Amino acid sequence: MKKTSLRRExxxxxxxxxxxxxxxxxxxxxxxxxxxxxxxxxxxxxxxxNRISNATERHLEGALIALESVSPNPHSVPKEQAFSxxxxxxxxxxxxxxxxxxxxxxxxxxxxxxxxxxGVYRITNNFVELFWREPGTALREVxxxxxxxxxxxxxxxxxxxxxxxxxxxxxxxxxxxxxSAIYNNFTSSFPTITLAxxxxxxxxxxxGVVATDVTLQVLSDFLKTLEISKNSVAYILDAEGHIxxxxxxxSPVKKVNGMxxxxxxxxMKTSLIxxxxxxxxxxxxxxxxxxxxxxPTQQLELNIGTVDVAVSSLGSKQGLNWxxxxxxxxxxxxSGINQGFAQSVGIxxxxxxxxxxxxxxxxxxxxRDIRKLTDAAEKFGNGEPLPxxxxxxxxEIGTLAQTFVEMENKLRFDKLTQVANRESLFAQINYxxxxxxxxxxxxxxxxxxxxxxxxxxxxxxxxGHDAGDKVLVIIASRLKAAVRDSDLVAxxxxxxxVLLLKETKSSIDINNMVEKICSLVxxxxxxxxxxxxxxxxxxxxxxxxxxxxxxKLIKIADGRMYKxxxxxxxxxxxxx
Length: 576
Description:
- By secondary structure, the chain is α+β, with helices and mostly antiparallel strands.
- It is 45% helix and 23% strand.
- Among the domains are: 66-214, PAS domain (Beta-Lactamase); 413-569, Reverse transcriptase/Diguanylate cyclase domain (Alpha-Beta Plaits), CATH 3.30.70.270.
- Strands 1, 2, 3, 4, 5, 6, 7, 8 and 9 form a nine-stranded antiparallel sheet that branches. Strands 11-10-16-15-14 form a five-stranded antiparallel sheet.
């Protein structure tokens, strides 16, 4: 089985859980924010495109109102009024009409069927031009005037016949107001369209045509004032796909043979206009045809990314067939969401780091104490001395540590004398032997002293087993006092003890230790009923000189102990 660690087992699930929850929350927040932005985008775009269409239609409606002020529609007045082509009366009417909506249609004029022409062009409040051509004359005179009837300042004279103009020819053959195509006004560089209307005398004969020019630059200026988003664009198209007005900086007019020509949407360098038109051409055509099944908004995938587009028909009441288009890159609307998401991610990462720091600290505290128990268990299994655990806890790990200590006492120490038992002795010998094999140092040598008590059976038989147990406890205590803290005292069985002396360097050291033990152990012992004493027979064996395993070492030490016992019985004292 592949080895793992408790830290990994605890930390990985916690990490995965914290990160998973954070990612799930972030995803839900992002999804909710994206859905909300999508819904809001559709509403904003729909409202914006309708606002543009309504504002544009008001501009176009102004042109109709201006013409109606000169020649009212018979259906809009209670009594039919015959049109008068009196030029002086018309001058007053055109002054009033041109002042109704000066920012859009400030040029209102009339061309008669006999070639007469009257026009008032309000360039500013203080600069008004009057165009005047009497019937039967070849030239049209242009005056700078301050009021109706003023002829004090002649600016120029020019050949002009209104009957030859496209607006006159088209309007003269229909009884409804008619719009011209987009063109550039000869008096300015602004794109313009003309609304013209035929007027009739009392006998219903054609008197001429009244017309007004609508400056489309005003529409572009209006679109530029709209605050949609940073990279959005709004534009107006005619039925042929020409740009009527745009909120962008690119001009919708190009020069062809020195003449200004209005550009098609597909010719625009602004990709948000050209790509949007190409991608949504069929959809826009269906909107123009008033297809009710067509949604007002669409989401397009362009080279610049996802773009939300809204389209609305425009000018149908005024006799035009235009489209209003608003295109907004999704990134504009998502910038706030992305910023909020980035902040949420930053907060989530900080929370993850904080949670993992706390979790890692808690895991480390748990793992540290469990590692102590694991190391102690390994040392115990190898026969090494058990280190002090120093685990001060009141939870399950503290209970486990206390239980471990108690278990070690039961398994490693003799219950009566509280010195090491036989199994613990063998484990210690094996541990020292393996350590010596790894290091091969002289300091790794050790010696076993096999200690057997003489006259112990006499104490048991004459004073009882309780007295014998007490003697064993006292002897064990004296043996522990005779050796170093690093040495080991073990009860081998009955009245036999084995001492494990580490780092013994010479036989002189061994003999000195034997003499010390004998003198301490053989001192009298006070019992409740008598003073007793025991004799000691000690044999020894050294590693590695006498053997390299505990069986051989114990056998040799035991043999030398019995030889010493025999010598004592025959009053012969032999030292090593």
